[in-house]
Amino acid sequence: MAGFGTGVPSGGVRTGRARGARVWTAARLMLGWVALLWLLEVVDVITGHELDAFGVSPREPSELVDVVPAAFLHFGFGHLAANTVPLLVLGFLAALGSGIRRFLALCALIVVADGVGVWLVAPDGTNTAGASGLVFGLFDYLVVTGFVERRPLGILAGVLVAAIWGTSFLAGLAPQEGISWQGHLIGLIAGVAGAFLLRRRPAQE
What is the rounded distance in angstroms from the CA atom of residue 21 to the CA atom of residue 18? Predict the structure, then answer.
């Protein structure tokens, strides 16, 4: 007996399922990431802010081991709340557009470059921690990667991200007491570097 067709090409079904899985994977990754940051801040409060010691103090060789942990710690819930929404949104967009492996490589690049940069140039006597360097890096990555890879959809996404978030991120570069504008600037530079170093090759399209 002849079967009945659905009218939908099987390739289209597979593509739709793959896109849905990619969206769900990116969402779970960023929700888990943000949940971890909040859990760490709860632990920090419970322990009397002992985790703050894992921030980066400049030009002390022993502090280099704190470059990565510092990106997951914050100085209070207000500090964390300010980073939560942009990290969640920008991280989701970057993970969705780049794929999980490239996204994780991008985050590693930004976190390490930003942490080492802060270690080199931050003022003496400061202690720097927080996800804002990563957030600034993801912002710049999303703004420029479409142009680097010459992808119209990526360019459109970058223009929208710049239009929505640009003013806020520019304000974050202004010197302010208690805010590491150096970390923000280095994060931006690392994001651009990531767009070039991790750009998608034609064979990967």
Answer: 5
